[in-house]
Amino acid sequence: MSDCLFCKIAAGEIPADTVYEDDQVIVFKDIHPKAPVHLLIVPREHIPSLKEMDASHDALMAHMMRLLPGLAQEQGLDNGFRTIINTGPGGGQEIFHLHIHLLGGGRLPGFG
Ligand code: AMP
Ligand code: ZN
After folding, report:
1. Which residues contact 93 (CB under 8 A, 6 or more apart)?
2. What is the spatial distance between Cα 79 and Cα 46, in angstroms, rounded to a whole number?
3. Ligand 1 pocket: which residues have CB below 6 Å?
4. How far is ligand 2, taken at its centre, from the CA of residue 39, in Å?
5. Which H, E and C letters describe the chain, residue by residue?
6. Are 14 and 5 in contact, with CB atoms under 8 Å apart?
7. Nearest-angstrom CA–CA distance, 73 and 86
8. Per-residue pLDDT of the chain (112 residues; tens, 9 = 90+)
9. Which of 6, 19, 32, 49 to mutate to test the pocket of ligand 1 (most atoms within 8 A of CB)?
10. Are the C-beta atoms of residues 22 and 32 closer than 8 Å to each other?
11. How many A from CA of 77 to the centre of ligand 2?
12. pTM of the predicted model as reported, rounded to 2 decimal places
């Protein structure tokens, strides 16, 4: 998608503070961090949101999930971390290219 911010970051057209990348994903620091550690795990493939996932994405999703503990450990999150996927306007999604938020390093608010 030519007008998608995360596609442009994945293509290297817009700079990001990248901490990891491979042939399937790129991981960079959120530009407005909500916690001391706030990473975004972004597939290179343009998938707008979880709503567009299908069976062809099974291996990609598993890959992204399995990356999380190692990324957290590299960031020093020995005590645990939080993952969030916002989906659609009702879920607070602002960038319509699927991504997983990885947060930690401070006292995260509870869910009530
Ligand atoms: P979401 O609301 O789940 O779509 O999350 C989008 C996230 O992308 C927000 O936390 C933003 O702070 C973050 N963001 C927006 N632009 C950039 C950028 N250029 N580089 C890194 N993170 C960004
Ligand atoms: Zn995209």
Report:
1. 49, 86, 87
2. 32
3. 5, 16, 28, 30-32, 40, 86, 92-95
4. 17
5. CCCCHHHHHHCCCCCCCEEEECCCEEEEECCCCCCCEEEEEEECCCCCCHHHCCHHHHHHHHHHHHHHHHHHHHCCCCCCCEEECCCCHHHCCCCCCCCEEEEECCCCCCCC
6. yes
7. 23
8. 579 999 999 999 999 999 999 999 999 999 999 999 999 999 999 999 999 999 999 999 999 999 999 999 999 999 999 999 999 999 999 999 999 999 999 888 887 6
9. 32
10. no
11. 28
12. 0.97
The CATH code belonging to domain 5-104 is 3.30.428.10
Q: Reply yes or no on whether 101 is catalytic.
A: no
Residues 6 and 45: their CA atoms lie apart, in Å, by 10
For the four alpha carbons of 79, 110, 34 and 69, in that order, the dihedral sign comes to positive
Query: Of ligand 1's atoms, which has the minimum distance to the CA of residue 32?
Result: 12
